[in-house]
């Protein structure tokens, strides 16, 4: 479409200049003939001069078009080589022409981009190795602490005070294990190490899997979980990581929900562009001034101080949904509960 507009515009310009040239030529020949008393020889000489001038102008325009076309072809080849990752060849040579200067700048830019990309890949590999080392080096000691705490808890003759201390060690070790796991996931998402593969699939299975991970805690706290979703509703998402995102929302709904008489309602609505998943609860709620802050890393709201947490869950949820091409928003009020709306691409 753009090319058609450019061609029409240049055709109009050529037509205007052509008409002006014909008018000026006719006026010039007419004036010369008039001032020389309508001398035929002068008129023919003037016409011949104009024709020669016209041919020279035409030849000049054609030469300029050919040079422009050659420059465009050269630059197109340079860009194609840059896109394909092939090495740049000096087609124009080291001349003082604008095309040569531009080719050298493009070549230099491609070389710098390739160098920076290589450095980024090396840095990413180094970060990946560091994260793997941290995960591996901390996993074994924590597993041992949890294991030995369990064995110590089963030791006969252990006093109640000692059993309380052992239970605290197990509890804190489990929290530390979860924290390290969350930090590793967060780092991998931020550095692009984790590849999220979004495919068109039913969302009911993903929601059911996320609910199954919090159902025991919700039942223990007396919170009812309801799902309103048609089995045929689909969305483009990564089932594993979307389950992680929904689990974080459901876990918060359980933690901040009412001890008894609480409820969590999951409603799914399909539209042309997005599939919307609403996770609604009747818990403590969130002030409007904190709606944007709760998705920040390590942010804890003023009303969340009494509930254990470190402020990673919602941040991870937003990062996962963003990587899938979706987004999340919240609507809430203190004492009236919250509604977290997840939007997943439907196409």
From TrEMBL:
SMART domains in alphabetical order: HATPase_c, HisKA
Molecular function in Gene Ontology: kinase activity
Residues in Histidine kinase domain copies: 133-347
Catalytic activity: ATP + protein L-histidine = ADP + protein N-phospho-L-histidine
Pfam families referenced in this protein's UniProt entry, alphabetically: HATPase_c, HisKA
EC number, UniProt record: 2.7.13.3
Domain of life: Bacteria
SUPFAM superfamilies registered for this protein in UniProt: ATPase domain of HSP90 chaperone/DNA topoisomerase II/histidine kinase (SSF55874), Homodimeric domain of signal transducing histidine kinase (SSF47384)
UniProt keyword Phosphoprotein, yes or no: yes
Transmembrane segments: 12-35, 41-61
Primary enzyme class: transferase
Keywords: ATP-binding, Kinase, Membrane, Nucleotide-binding, Phosphoprotein, Transferase, Transmembrane, Transmembrane helix, Two-component regulatory system
Name of this chain's protein: histidine kinase
Organism: Paenibacillus haidiansis
Upper lineage: Bacteria, Bacillati, Bacillota, Bacilli, Bacillales
């Amino acid at each position: 479409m753009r090319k058609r507009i450019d061609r029409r515009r240049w055709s109009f310009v050529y037509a205007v200049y052509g008409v002006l040239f014909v008018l000026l030529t006719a006026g010039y020949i007419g004036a010369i003939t008039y001032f020389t008393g309508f001398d035929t020889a002068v008129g023919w000489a003037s016409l011949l001069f104009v024709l020669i001038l016209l041919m020279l102008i035409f030849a000049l325009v054609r030469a300029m078009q050919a040079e422009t076309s050659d420059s465009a072809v050269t630059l197109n080849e340079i860009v194609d080589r840059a896109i394909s990752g092939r090495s740049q060849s000096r087609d124009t040579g080291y001349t003082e022409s604008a095309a040569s200067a531009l080719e050298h700048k493009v070549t230099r830019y491609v070389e710098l981009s390739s160098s920076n990309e290589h450095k980024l890949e090396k840095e990413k590999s180094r970060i990946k190795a560091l994260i793997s080392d941290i995960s591996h080096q901390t996993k074994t000691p924590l597993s041992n602490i949890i294991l030995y705490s369990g064995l110590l808890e089963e030791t006969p003759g252990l006093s109640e005070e000692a059993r309380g201390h052992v239970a605290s060690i197990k509890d804190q070790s489990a929290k530390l294990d979860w924290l390290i796991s969350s930090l590793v996931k967060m780092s991998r998402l931020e550095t692009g190490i984790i590849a999220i593969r979004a495919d068109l699939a039913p969302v009911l299975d993903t929601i059911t899997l996320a609910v199954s991970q919090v159902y025991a805690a919700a039942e223990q706290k007396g919170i009812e979980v309801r799902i309103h979703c048609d089995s045929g509703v689909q969305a483009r998402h990564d089932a594993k990581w979307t389950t992680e995102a929904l689990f974080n929302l459901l876990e918060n709904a359980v933690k901040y929900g009412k001890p008894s008489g609480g409820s969590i309602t999951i409603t799914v609505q399909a539209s042309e562009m997005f599939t919307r998943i609403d996770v609604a609860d009747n818990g403590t709620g969130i002030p409007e001034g904190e709606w944007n802050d709760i998705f920040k890393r390590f942010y804890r709201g003023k009303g969340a101080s009494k509930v254990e947490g470190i402020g990673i869950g919602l941040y991870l949820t937003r990062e996962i949904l963003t990587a899938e091409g979706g987004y999340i928003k919240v609507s809430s009020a203190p004492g009236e509960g919250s509604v977290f709306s997840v939007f997943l691409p439907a196409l």
